[in-house]
Amino acid sequence: MKKFLSSFMHYYAYSTTATILVVAVYMALRKSEIDQDVLWQIMINCGITSLTSTIILEMDFNNIKEMALGLSIHYFLVFSISVALIDWFDWFELTFSNVMRTLLACLVIYAFTTFMHFYADREHIDDMNEELKKRFGE
């Protein structure tokens, strides 16, 4: 349970940071302001997607194919949850171009969050490498 909560907090902190950065850049380019309610909605979105991340990414994958499938399913879920919440929070109309922008934003946030989670937790990476060596040899 401690590992689960630790992973959740990492994903939550990184995804919230990345999301705020993406929103800040988007708002600066549009020269618009953000309502304080949107900040709470971002936190809700990041909480839900971080829970999804913790559940899926902390699974024990047996091989590269399983890991690739797991990451693909994870990204699709994060994107789908984000689009559903964007619609629910009524942030903008769900047009093709807005969904494509969301796809790109999710990709940037996904890459940042995944990178930071593994980069910041070097001990976790070492443990994973040892486990991979045990399973698949060198």
Strand content: under 5%
Number of helices: 5
Q: What's the mean pLDDT score?
A: 86
Q: In percent, how helical is the residue content?
A: over 70%
**How do the helices and strands follow one another from N- to C-terminus?**
HHHHH
Intertermini distance: 31 Å
Total E-strand runs: 0
Measured on Cα atoms, how large is the radius of gyration?
Answer: 16 Å
Based on secondary structure, the structural category is mainly alpha
- Model regions low in confidence, pLDDT < 50 over at least 5 residues: none
- Taken from the alpha-carbon principal axes, the silhouette is elongated
Q: Sheet with the most strands?
A: none
Outline of the structure:
The chain is elongated, with a radius of gyration of 16 Å. With 138 residues, the protein is mainly α.
Structural notes for this entry:
By secondary structure, the chain is mainly alpha-helical. 85% of the residues lie in helices and 0% in strands. It is built from five helices and no strands. It has helices at 2-30, 36-57, 64-89, 96-120, 122-136. The longest helix is centred in the N-terminal third of the chain and has 29 residues, at 2-30. It is elongated and about 55 Å long. 15% of the residues are buried.
SSE layout and pairings?
Elements: H1 2-30, H2 36-57, H3 64-89, H4 96-120, H5 122-136
Question: Which features does this protein show?
Answer:
5 helices, single chain, 138 residues, 85% helix, elongated, mainly alpha
